[in-house]
Structures are given as C-alpha cells and as structure tokens.
Design goal:
Helix 1 (7-25) packs antiparallel against helix 2, helix 5 runs parallel beside helix 6 (170-176) and helix 10 packs across helix 14 (350-373). The protein folds into 2 domains: 7-284 and 355-455, Amidase signature (AS) domain (Amidase signature (AS) enzymes, Alpha-Beta Complex); 285-351, no CATH class. Helix content is 39%, strand content 16%. It is α/β, with parallel strands linked by helices. The chain has helices at residues 7-25, 35-47, 78-81, 91-98, 146-153, 170-176, 210-221, 245-248, 253-268, 285-304, 315-324, 326-329, 336-342, 350-373, 404-409, 437-455; strands spanning 28-31, 59-63, 102-107, 124-125, 129-130, 132-133, 136-140, 159-164, 179-182, 202-207, 240-244, 272-278, 378-382, 413-421, 424-431. The strands form 3 sheets. The protein has an 11-stranded mixed sheet, sandwiched between helices. Strands 4-5 form a two-stranded antiparallel sheet. Its EC number is 3.5.1.4.
C-alpha cells in the first residue's frame, strides 16, 4: 500500500509522466517544486528506521481549494491567483504531511467548486483552464474535483484529495473510473477548505483502489480506525443491500445494464439484495439552492478573512472582480449564483431555516427510514451518467446521479468503478447512514474484488477523442 521502494524515485517517475501526459488532460494546475526534496527527506527517515505509517513516502495530489502553506490556493479563480499562499496548511494537509505523504501538487477544479454560475462546465477554471477526461479527451472529467479524478485515472498519482458538496467527489470518480469516498460531513476537518456549505462540504480520498482510499481516509480523519482493515475478502452473507430504483435508476440504458450486472456480483458474494425500493425526491431545487446560497455567503466570507490582507474579503468584492475581468472569468458562464448568495440575509433568515429543515428531512429521513424499514445495511445505485461531451458554451449535460440524498443528509457515499458504457467508465455508489464508512468500505471492496475476478482489471485510458 505504501511506497517501499523509494519516495524520491517514485516522485521522479511521476513527474516525468506528468510532463508527458498532463498536457493532454490538464489535471494539475500547480506542481510542487519541492516534491523531490521532500521525498528524499522521507527516504532518509525510512533509512534511519523512522516510518511514520503505511503511507510513508506516498505522493498525494490535493485539490486547489484546500489550503497549502507552500503553494497557492485559488479555488480556480484569478481573484486568488496572485494572493500569497495561505498562512498555514489545512488540518487535513497537516495530517498528510505528518503521515509521511509527499505533496506532489495541486489539482485543477471547477471554479469555486461549481457554485458561481448555473451554466458552468465541470473541469473549467480561469486559473487552471479545462481538465479533460483521460478516457475521452472531448468528454467531461466531471466536477468539481475534476483534476483529482483525471490525475489518478491517468497514472499521475495513485492518491488524491477531492472535496464534495453534492457529487463533487463521486461524479469525477465515476467518470474517470477511479474510487472516491465522500465521508460523513464532519469526519474530516472543514477548516482550510474554500467553502460552499458547512452543512454539506467535506474532503475525501480519490484513489485507484478501495483499499488505498480506506488507508487515506484513516489519515485524513486522524482516526484510530484503520479503515483498510475492512478490505478483507468478499463474503457478504450477513449483509442486506437496498436498491432504491426511484429516482436513481432509469436515465441511462447502458448504465442500468452495467449496474444490473453489479447487483448480480453482490448477490454472488452472498449479499441479500432488497430490490424495487424508492427514496423520496430530494426536495425541490429551490430549497437546495437556498441552503447553499445562504451558507456560501457566511462561510466563504469567513474563509476569505483568513487569507492575507489585500485580497477579496466579501462576495461583493469577488463579483466586482469577475466583472472587471469578464473577458476571462465570465467568458463561458456567469455568476448569478454568487449574486444570489450575496443578496441573502444570514443563517437566521426564516427562508434559510425552512429550506434547511426541508433538506434534512429529504436527505436524512429518506435514507434512515429506508434503511430502518427494510433492515438494510446500505443502499446501492448507479453513480452518474457516462461522461458527457464538453460544451463550454451551454455547460454540463448530466442525465442523472445518486449524490443528492447523501449530500442533503451529510451522509457518506462511495463510488467504485463498475464497468464501461461505449468505452466510457461508469461507477456504482454505496450509501448509508451517518458514520457508516466501515460498512460501506467493506461492501465496496467486496464488489471491487468480485468485479475484477469476473471481468479482469479495469481498462486503462488511451487519451484519445471519443467518436
């Protein structure tokens, strides 16, 4: 799991690959110029008998909305691009360094984590440009953790960190054929992450395998729980898994076919499949937008106050900056979500309180009632529609997804590659109640193992256009 053959040699190998491959996909916006030096220092520690843990010497990429004291943190925006790096690492980055990980660089993202304008294209930011899907260069890498997902798929690192508010880890994980864990909100510290919503935001691992994601989750949470210990075997004979057909299936015939095959594999592992269930619709779009808009203004302005003097401090200042740099920032889509958030009246607003209550009921009550009423350990569903064609003019064309209920609830979700549709990766998500990561990791690993036994290793990207 860790790097036992020399961190410096591995970093050198990855940097060479980065120079060859990343120009095709544009996943890394800020390489770490000190990565090789840091890796050599960790090799010395190993030689002297000091091994910090299973991930000692492992290179990790970090999404560019997570604070790093030695590298810029821009959230993809030119408004932060010329600012000094944050004064200190985010707590999760400190944990990575303390565990002996090598910070290889920062990954591009959908600007402001896809919450600036409603017609945005996932994977585009004014600072980092456009990230492309390694499996189909004219198709989306998903968002908003686009660079993290594409980089892992392209072999630029086995380990990366993404963040999610609603789908921003599990979407690019599914579209790029990698594993993504969106943990329970609060399990990983939120400090030092450019925010949208304190009730929904969380960082999480994006890796090649479930076991790697589990090991990285242990580091990120600072927990005594060794999540990778749950990646043992495929016996699910004591597990009941629910299949909520409505509203999470039926939007993509090819995806449904791959997902039906996944249910067969889970059943072959001994799991009891409780089929033809349903979740309530996850509330109206208006309620969800009210929650995010109200929390964005409060949370983002609190974050901006932690950055160096001279930079933007309010949403109004960010809006003005974008207007002043409209030829770049507003070239492809607007900032009506920013403008809506700037007009909100705080977290005591009756509009916010009512919308937040509706969101909680749709998310937590929907999931928990389904689990309780059917004596389920978890639920499973197709992750996201296959990667859509990149369209910077009109924005994303997402047919459907499985992330909203877990997002509104603040509950965990794991996406695992399940197969391909016309050569495009698709994924399966495992969801459950709060802090059910141990169960979900066990199920995800069993499925991953069974799929590989049945179908062989997941295909590697060829960096070509999709017809």
């Amino acid at each position: 799991m860790g790097n036992e053959f020399g961190a410096a040699a591995l970093v050198d190998q990855l940097q060479t690959r980065m120079r060859t491959v990343d120009p095709l996909i544009n996943a890394i916006c800020t390489p770490n110029p000190n990565a090789l030096t840091e890796a050599a220092r960790l090799d010395t520690e190993r030689d002297e008998g000091r091994v910090r843990g299973p991930l000692h010497g492992v290179p990790v990429l970090v999404k560019d909305n997570i604070d790093t004291a030695d590298l810029p943190t821009t959230a993809g925006s030119l408004a932060l691009a010329d600012q000094p790096p944050p004064l200190e690492d985010a707590p999760l980055v400190r944990r990575l360094r303390d565990a002996g990980c090598v910070l290889l660089g920062k990954t591009n993202l959908s600007e402001w984590a896809n919450f600036r304008g409603s017609a945005s294209s996932s994977g585009w930011s004014a600072y980092g440009g456009l990230t492309r899907n390694p499996y189909a260069l004219n198709r989306s890498a998903g968002g908003s953790s686009s660079g993290s997902g594409a980089a892992v798929a392209a072999g630029l690192a086995d380990y990366a960190i993404g963040t999610e508010t609603n789908g921003s880890i599990v979407c690019p994980a599914a579209l790029n054929g990698v594993v993504g864990i969106k943990p329970t909100v609060g399990l990983i510290p939120q400090q030092g992450i450019v925010p949208i919503s304190h009730s929904q935001d969380t960082a999480g691992p994006m890796t090649r395998t479930v076991e790697q994601a589990a090991a990285l989750l242990t580091v990120l949470t600072g927990s005594s729980t060794e999540y990778a210990d749950n990646c043992r075997g495929t016996d699910l004979s004591n597990v009941r898994i629910g299949v909520p057909r409505g509203p999470l299936w039926g939007y993509s015939t090819g995806l449904d076919q791959v997902s039906e095959r996944a249910l067969e594999l889970l059943s072959s592992c001994g799991a009891t499949i409780v089929d033809h269930l349903s979740l309530p619709t996850p509330g109206g779009d208006e309620d969800q937008l009210q929650v995010l808009a109200h929390e964005l203004k409060v949370d983002l302005e609190a974050y901006l106050a932690t950055r160096a003097p001279g930079g933007p401090r309010t949403l109004d200042e960010l809006i003005a900056f974008n207007n002043d740099h409209a030829d770049v920032e507003l070239r492809w889509f607007g900032q009506e979500l920013f403008e809506r958030a700037a007009a909100t009246e705080g977290l005591s607003s009756p509009v916010y309180v009512a919308a937040r209550l509706t969101a909680l009921r749709a998310g937590r009550d929907g999931i928990d009632n389904l689990l309780r009423d059917n004596q389920l350990d978890a639920i499973v569903s197709p992750a996201y529609s296959p990667a859509w064609a990149i369209d910077l003019v009109n924005g994303d064309h997402v047919l459907g997804s499985s992330s909203s209920h877990a997002a509104l609830a603040g509950y965990p979700l794991i996406s695992v590659p399940s197969g391909t549709v016309a050569g495009l990766p698709v994924g399966l998500t495992f969801g459950g109640t709060a802090r059910s990561e141990v169960t979900l990791i066990r199920l995800a690993h069993a499925f991953e193992t069974a799929r590989i036994v049945a179908d062989g290793p997941f295909p590697t990207p060829e960096f070509t256009q999709w017809a």
